[in-house]
Amino acid sequence: MDYKIQLLSFLASFGFGMIMAIVNQVFLIYVKNKYLVIKYLLATFLAFDIAMFYMALMYKINEGVVHIYFIMVMFIGVYFGNKVNILSILQKLKQVCCRRKK
After folding, report:
1. Average pLDDT of every residue of the chain
2. How many CB atoms lie within 10 A of CB 5?
3. Which of 11, 5, 15 is nearest to 64 (CA)?
């Protein structure tokens, strides 16, 4: 694997980790008051979809080669993605949209 494909895989894994953390935050907001069985079923489907999307992304970039350091970079992206407070961002977007309408 040449360095361009490897660098692109690093960036894609980091970005995917950040997106995965934000999707998880939004998911937890929506299933907060649901029944326990529904939470587990939806979490299982979400995890399966995220894993399939990551594998499809890796197949698109580097023919499906997944190294352990790509997974580590993805978890670093999850860490930084969890630092993002999605509720504050959504509130700011709502304020900006409401200002335009007036």
Report:
1. 87
2. 13
3. 5
CB atoms within 10 A of CB 84: 12
pLDDT in tens, 2-16: 889 999 999 999 999
Q: pTM for this one?
A: 0.77
Question: Cα separation of 92 and 94, whole Å?
Answer: 5
For the four alpha carbons of 63, 57, 76 and 3, in that order, the dihedral sign comes to positive
Which SS3 state, helix, strand or coil, does residue 101 take?
helix
CA distance 22 to 28: 10
Contact (Cβ atoms closer than 8 angstroms) between residue 23 and residue 50: yes
